[in-house]
């Protein structure tokens, strides 16, 4: 294998004899050629240590040539090497010698494996900044040109990422050459290269002079946006955001908008999806006037696209789009031009579309104000709360806080309750879990009375759910509720019910009591813990199931710090000592641990 | 957890839990749900008001003067598309189009002299209008072709007939590539190739035959087709890892490679080394490995000097964690060894048998078993025998070790036979290796210890450096050069 059989006559035994501290380095360099990939990888990862020990000169003259020669290796090793070299400037003697790192990185930038190549480009970009302007033109720019005119597509794709870092500091003549190279890559006959160029077009545009942007970048953008392959066209949409930011309104209208309009109606759904996905960025980049004239109609089309993927992506952007509209006239635009389309989406055939909409639609209420929300949005919320897909309902419920601020939650509570109850009993435990997480929020917004009447029983039912994750979440939920409603409420409503479970025939339920006590004791305080909870815990030390007994030990360890010394010494200690002699090893272990943590041993 | 058994209560809990079925839908259930709607089509985008089709007279009833005119009218009529996702709309028009397409298929396959020069344009237009479309997004984002049912093309009732017609057209004795090449050009082929990503296997099957015919009849498009396939594969390997038609394209390539002239062009060798070999890294290799291995072996049969780079390439991409893929690799290696020349074998025996030695000691018994099956292959056995002095030392350690340690009795039995065979090939060397086995192991252990020691020292060194750096950040440079200069 490469590293092993490689012909590289590496730096010979660096300081093999004499200096003892250098001996490992010599072996390390041997390890760079070891047969075992893992060992080669380890040594590459310690490359900076080797370089540090060799000193800058020998790193330049021996280590780097050796590395350049052994570039044929496993991709994993090459990846590590590409990464290391990016931080090597100091190790080869600082910026004056940064160019020494270019040969190995150049080879790495041409390998097949994408991750290696990308990492090499990343390192090259990093190092380019450390070059002096002279070194940049003498060493770095020629490298970019070589890569840009390489035979195999890999080097040309790598070159695409390097133009923007060397352009700003190059002289005018060189700048013209760099632009020329970039141009030819944009019309490369390999689609991989055109994709790479398209994805860097925006970044490159940003470092160009405005005239060149207009005269050179725009035509390239137009070409890429009408490429025969949709994978290229969709990348042009991304570039559009950057280019639009650079141009005046007039230029935008004349140079970019025709292309963008065309992209929004592309025959490939992937391109339309991209427009929908980048909609907020595009909106910001083109400014309010073009947004009103062009983007809103385009957005309407995306909202009723024939492909669900596109509709879902557009639905996701509804709130941001509305938020970013200019305040004057915003309400009218939303009411007349957006809302009618949203109403359609509420009854879309695709659940992803509906759930995307449900995740943002509540945000509109703050923008539209109380009256509009009650009149126009509320019916939509209510419809979505009854949707057949739990994700839609859940997304509505999880964003209730937005509506609460505007119209108060009471408006919704009648419809909310059936929706919550249904989700609380959903067959999918992940749905149940999600609704539990919103309970504290809902409780806060609906108030203690409503909660006690309608939701308390649900919260208690989750404690005996047959999925552990739900029982666990239910326990945490109780703790959060106690923090919200106070200890008195806890003592009256929660604690008695929890403690009753201590004598449940199901040992899992008995353990739930213990877990609840663990979670609640701190929020409930010393008095409740000592008087009501502790006796129950202690009683459970005699449980016939070992799992319950060792959880008693764990609980005692947990609530110990809240108790006073008397209770600890007189009640807890004897029980723990007894458990410390238990026949079960786990019980013994946890009892002894509790004793030592509570300093009772 | 505790060892004591749960009491009665637990049992009752288990019952209630099983009564209250949890939401973990079984994969089979989810799949059944999906199958109901596993039809997709992106072909139909609202074209404004939908034209209603009116039946035209039958071609066979027309006079020969009118026939040509009517043929073209029918072709134009078939350019109109219908929405098959909506199963109730345009039923009458859909049926008229279906009947017309059937008639067209019949017409071109039973009549001679009907494919005249003026018809080519309409024919290709009709085909393009129907089959070229952006494929719909996959219904199931993590579609696993091995497990899941594919999404079928909803408009198949029409598209199938269009493909049928296309094939009859290409295969007709009247078909003239010199005229057709004006319409079936690079852009046409490009779009055709993109369709190979269709999730519908029926469509890919038609495409395979169609592309094969085009490759056969249009000499001017051959290089272009190969290059585009090249690009599709590279994109598949390095960008998307997803393309449904890889197996079909490889199948066509298999016969293309078969027809390559000797000596092989550099372009073809590059395709082998830079595209076909890296394709072995794909996640879904199982879906097209048979076709891929066939292509590779075709190359080696053409030019044996490619054996060494190919095997080294496979060794470079040898799967590290996926046993299923490892078994496939071993299968491919055996196929290659079946056709290898003894001189080529000598060039790669060392790295190759180091890998095989790792495989036979794999704890996954299928990998070990597959590797050990090499010893059932007479030709491989003869190669091993010729080079026993080289191979036995490489293999001996692993074989000896697993003959004592492997958990699977079948493997142990197989290893025993292999050891016996090897012993018969060179008894003396075998005895020597047995004798030195222990010493060898001890030397390895010692080396391992040394390595650990080395890393320890290295850590210390790093700490020391860090300390030095802290102490004298400004003159670190000079300290370093003091320690590193001898």
TrEMBL record, chain A:
One of its GO terms (cellular component) is cytosol. Residues 98-282 form the Phosphatase 2A Regulatory Subunit A helical domain. GO terms for molecular function: protein phosphatase regulator activity. It comes from Callorhinus ursinus. Pfam families: HEAT, HEAT_2, PPP2R1A-like_HEAT, VPS15-like_hel. HEAT repeats lie at residues 24-62, 101-139, 178-216, 217-255, 256-294, 295-332, 338-376, 377-415, 416-454, 494-532, 533-571, 572-601. Belongs to the phosphatase 2A regulatory subunit A family. Keywords: Repeat. The keyword Repeat applies. The keyword Repeat applies. Residues 288-369 form the Phosphatase PP2A regulatory subunit A/Splicing factor 3B subunit 1-like HEAT repeat domain. This is Serine/threonine-protein phosphatase 2A 65 kDa regulatory subunit A beta isoform isoform X4. The gene is PPP2R1B.
From TrEMBL, chain B:
Residues 27-37 have a biased composition (Basic residues). Residues 1-18, 38-51 have a biased composition (Low complexity). GO terms for cellular component: cytosol; nucleus; protein phosphatase type 2A complex. Transmembrane segments: none annotated. SUPFAM superfamilies: ARM repeat (SSF48371). Residues 1-52 are annotated as: Disordered. GO terms for biological process: signal transduction. InterPro entries: ARM-like, ARM-type_fold, PP2A_B56. One of its GO terms (molecular function) is protein phosphatase activator activity. The B regulatory subunit might modulate substrate selectivity and catalytic activity, and also might direct the localization of the catalytic enzyme to a particular subcellular compartment. Belongs to the phosphatase 2A regulatory subunit B56 family. This is Serine/threonine-protein phosphatase 2A 56 kDa regulatory subunit. It comes from Callorhinus ursinus.
């Amino acid at each position: 294998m490469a590293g092993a059989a490689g012909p590289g006559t590496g730096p010979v035994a660096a300081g093999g004899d004499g200096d003892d501290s250098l001996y490992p380095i010599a072996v390390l360099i041997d390890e760079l050629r070891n047969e075992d990939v893992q060992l080669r990888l380890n040594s590459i990862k310690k490359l900076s240590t080797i370089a540090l020990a060799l000193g800058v000169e020998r790193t330049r003259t021996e280590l780097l040539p050796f590395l350049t020669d052994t570039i044929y290796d496993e991709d994993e090793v090459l990846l590590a090497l590409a990464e290391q070299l990016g931080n090597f400037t100091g190790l080869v003697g600082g910026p004056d010698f940064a160019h020494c790192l270019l040969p190995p990185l150049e080879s790495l930038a041409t390998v097949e494996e994408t991750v290696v190549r990308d990492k090499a480009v990343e390192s090259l970009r990093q190092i380019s900044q450390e070059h002096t302007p002279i070194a940049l033109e003498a060493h770095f720019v020629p490298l970019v040109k070589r890569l840009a005119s390489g035979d195999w597509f890999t080097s040309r794709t790598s070159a695409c990422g390097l133009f923007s870092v060397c352009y700003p500091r190059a002289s005018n003549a060189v700048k013209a050459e760099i632009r020329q190279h970039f141009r030819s890559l944009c019309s490369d006959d390999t689609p991989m290269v055109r994709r790479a160029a398209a994805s860097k077009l925006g970044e490159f545009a940003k470092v160009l002079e405005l005239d060149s942007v207009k005269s050179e970048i725009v035509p390239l953008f137009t070409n890429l946006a009408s490429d025969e392959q949709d994978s290229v066209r969709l990348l042009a949409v991304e570039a559009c955001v950057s280019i639009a930011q650079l141009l005046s309104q007039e230029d935008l209208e004349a140079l970019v908008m025709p292309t963008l309009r065309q992209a929004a109606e592309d025959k490939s759904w992937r391109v339309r999806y991209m427009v929908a996905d980048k909609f907020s960025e595009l909106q910001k980049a083109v400014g309010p006037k073009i947004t009103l004239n062009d983007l809103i109609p385009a957005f309407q089309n995306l909202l009723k696209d024939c492909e669900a993927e596109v509709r879902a992506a557009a639905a996701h952007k509804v709130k941001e789009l509305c938020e970013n509209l200019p305040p004057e006239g915003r309400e009218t635009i939303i009411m007349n031009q957006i809302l009618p389309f949203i109403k359609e989406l509420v009854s879309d055939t695709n659940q992803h579309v509906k759930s995307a909409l449900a995740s943002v639609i509540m945000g509109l209420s703050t923008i539209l104000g109380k009256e509009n929300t009650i009149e126009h949005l509320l019916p939509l919320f209510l419809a979505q709360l009854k949707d057949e897909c739990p994700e839609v309902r859940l997304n509505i419920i999880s964003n209730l806080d937005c509506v609460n601020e505007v119209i108060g939650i009471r408006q919704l509570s009648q419809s909310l309750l059936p929706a919550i109850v249904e989700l609380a009993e959903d067959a999918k435990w992940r749905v149940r879990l999600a609704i539990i997480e919103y309970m504290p929020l809902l409780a806060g917004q609906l108030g203690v009375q409503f909660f006690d009447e309608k939701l308390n029983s649900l919260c208690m039912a989750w404690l005996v759910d047959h999925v552990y994750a739900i029982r666990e979440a239910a326990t945490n939920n109780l703790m959060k509720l106690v923090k919200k409603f106070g200890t008195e409420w806890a003592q009256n409503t929660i604690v008695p019910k929890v403690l009753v479970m201590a004598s449940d025939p199901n040992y899992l339920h008995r353990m739930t009591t213990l877990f609840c006590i663990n979670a609640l004791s701190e929020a409930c305080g010393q008095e409740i813990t000592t008087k009501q909870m502790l006796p129950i815990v202690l009683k459970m030390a005699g449980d016939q199931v070992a799992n319950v007994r060792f959880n008693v030990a764990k609980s005692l360890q947990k609530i110990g710090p809240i108790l006073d010394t008397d209770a600890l010494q007189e009640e807890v200690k004897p029980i723990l000592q007894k458990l410390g002699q238990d026949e079960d090893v786990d019980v013994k272990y946890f009892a002894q641990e509790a004793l030592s943590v509570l300093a009772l041993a | 957890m505790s060892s004591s058994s749960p009491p009665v209560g637990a049992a009752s809990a288990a019952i209630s839990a099983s009564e209250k079925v949890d939401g973990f839908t079984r994969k089979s259930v989810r799949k059944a749900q999906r199958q109901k709607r596993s039809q997709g089509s992106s072909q139909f985008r609202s074209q404004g008001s939908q034209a209603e089709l009116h039946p035209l007279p039958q071609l066979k009833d027309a006079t020969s003067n009118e026939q040509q005119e009517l043929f073209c009218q029918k072709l134009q009529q078939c350019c109109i598309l219908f929405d098959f996702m909506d199963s109730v709309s345009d039923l009458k028009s859909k049926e008229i189009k279906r009947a017309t397409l059937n008639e067209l298929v019949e017409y071109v396959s039973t009549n001679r002299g009907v494919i005249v020069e003026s018809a080519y344009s309409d024919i290709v237009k009709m085909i393009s209008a129907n089959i070229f479309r952006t494929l719909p997004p996959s219904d199931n984002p993590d579609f696993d072709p091995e497990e899941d049912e594919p999404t079928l093309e909803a408009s198949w009732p029409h598209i199938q007939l269009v493909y049928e017609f296309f094939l009859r057209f290409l295969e007709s004795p009247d078909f003239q590539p010199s005229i057709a090449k004006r319409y079936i050009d690079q852009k046409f082929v490009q779009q055709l190739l993109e369709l190979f990503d269709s999730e519908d296997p029926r469509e890919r099957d038609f495409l395979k035959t169609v592309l094969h015919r085009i490759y056969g009849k249009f000499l001017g498009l051959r290089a272009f087709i190969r290059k585009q396939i090249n690009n599709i594969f590279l994109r598949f390997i390095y960008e998307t890892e997803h393309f449904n038609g890889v197996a079909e394209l490889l199948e066509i390539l298999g016969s293309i490679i078969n027809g390559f002239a000797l000596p092989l062009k550099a372009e073809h060798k590059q395709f082998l080394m830079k595209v076909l070999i890296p394709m072995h890294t794909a996640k879904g290799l199982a879906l097209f490995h048979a076709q891929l291995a066939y292509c590779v072996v075709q190359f080696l049969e053409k030019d044996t000097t490619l054996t060494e780079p190919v095997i080294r390439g496979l060794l470079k991409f040898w799967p590290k964690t996926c046993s299923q893929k490892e078994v496939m690799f071993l299968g491919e290696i055996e196929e290659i060894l079946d056709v290898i020349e003894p001189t080529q074998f000598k060039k790669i025996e060392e790295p190759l048998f180091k890998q095989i030695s790792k495989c036979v000691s794999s704890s996954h018994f299928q990998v070990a078993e597959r590797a050990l099956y090499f010893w059932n292959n007479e030709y491989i056995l003869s190669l091993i025998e010729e080079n026993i002095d080289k191979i036995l030392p490489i293999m001996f350690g692993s074989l000896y070790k697993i003959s004592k340690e492997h958990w699977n009795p079948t493997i142990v039995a197989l290893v025993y036979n292999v050891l016996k065979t090897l012993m018969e090939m060179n008894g003396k060397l075998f005895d020597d290796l047995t004798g030195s086995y222990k010493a060898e192991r001890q030397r390895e252990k010692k080396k391992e210890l040394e390595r650990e020691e080395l890393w320890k020292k290295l850590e210390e060194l790093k700490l020391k450096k860090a300390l030095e750096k802290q102490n004298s950040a400004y003159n670190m440079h000079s300290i370093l050069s003091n320690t590193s200069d001898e």
